[in-house]
């Protein structure tokens, strides 16, 4: 949804878009929760940190979609506050994966490359489908932008896990898995910071607008 359309679309079209966005969020929530269950089991079985990191990411995204649904019809200030919360979860995920990667350098095991690759392909298909449905809403407010960034980052992360599986298979080493996990963490930190900055700007602008209205009255 572009800014141009948002300013000039009839009210009925905005309602239709909001209804469509809500339906997509429900689909995304279910897909992410199911993939969390699949990847957490596969990650433990395969001994893959990148799969476990992706599973935690799916769980975080499911929570994010639930928060987005809860505040979808709320005022911009509340949607921005929800985006701050979601940005914090993205940053927390990144820090968790970085810490786990450091720990695994000395205590990790060789992952099962075939399981990693198969699950990564399944996760990629799920995330591409969700990202495609959310593409039209990528230029919305901080809350909508955070949802789009999560799905986009997940698809990129799935490709990285797939490459890690090929690396583990080709080298017989766990290092490709650890490197990809670190990259996924960095991506989450960058995305979280981007959403946090936009959300803070929206909160500040909303507060300034409220002050101006208060002075007028």
- Percentage of helical residues? over 70%
- Whole-number total of structural domains: 1
CATH architectural group? Up-down Bundle
* Element string (H = helix, E = strand): HHHHHHH
Please mark out the parts with pLDDT under 50 across 5 or more consecutive residues, or reply none.
1-16
Task: Report the average pLDDT across residues.
Answer: 77
Quaternary status = single chain
CATH domain class = Mainly Alpha
Cα-atom radius of gyration: 19 Å
Total number of helices: 7
Number of strands: 0
Termini gap? 33 Å
Shape: elongated
Q: What structural category arises from helix and sheet content?
A: mainly alpha
User: CATH fold name, please?
Assistant: Alpha-lytic protease prodomain-like
Share of residues in strands: under 5%
The biggest sheet amounts to: none
Commentary on this structure:
The protein is an all-alpha fold. It has one domain: Alpha-lytic protease prodomain-like. Helices cover 88% and strands 0% of the residues. α6 runs antiparallel to α7. The longest helix is centred in the last third of the chain and has 42 residues.
In short:
It holds the Pfam family Cation_efflux. This protein is mainly alpha-helical.
């Amino acid at each position: 949804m572009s800014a141009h359309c948002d300013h000039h679309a009839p009210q009925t079209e905005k309602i239709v878009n909001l209804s469509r966005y809500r339906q997509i969020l429900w689909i995304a929530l279910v897909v992410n929760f199911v993939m969390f269950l699949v990847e957490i089991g596969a990650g433990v079985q395969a001994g893959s940190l990148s799969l476990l990191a992706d599973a935690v990411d799916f769980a975080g995204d499911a929570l994010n979609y639930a928060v987005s649904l809860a505040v979808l019809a709320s005022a911009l200030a509340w949607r921005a506050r929800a985006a701050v919360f979601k940005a914090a979860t993205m940053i927390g995920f990144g820090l968790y994966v970085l810490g786990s990667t450091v720990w695994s350098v000395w205590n990790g095991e060789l992952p099962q490359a075939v399981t990693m690759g198969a699950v990564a392909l399944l996760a990629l298909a799920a995330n591409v489908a969700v990202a495609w449905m959310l593409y039209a809403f990528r230029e919305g407010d901080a809350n909508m932008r955070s949802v789009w960034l999560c799905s986009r980052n997940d698809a990129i992360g799935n490709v990285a896990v797939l490459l890690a599986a090929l690396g583990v298979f080709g080298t017989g080493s766990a290092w490709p898995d650890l490197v990809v996990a670190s990259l996924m963490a960095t991506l989450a930190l960058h995305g979280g910071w981007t959403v946090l900055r936009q959300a803070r700007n929206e909160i500040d602008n909303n507060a300034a607008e409220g002050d101006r209205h208060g002075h007028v009255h």
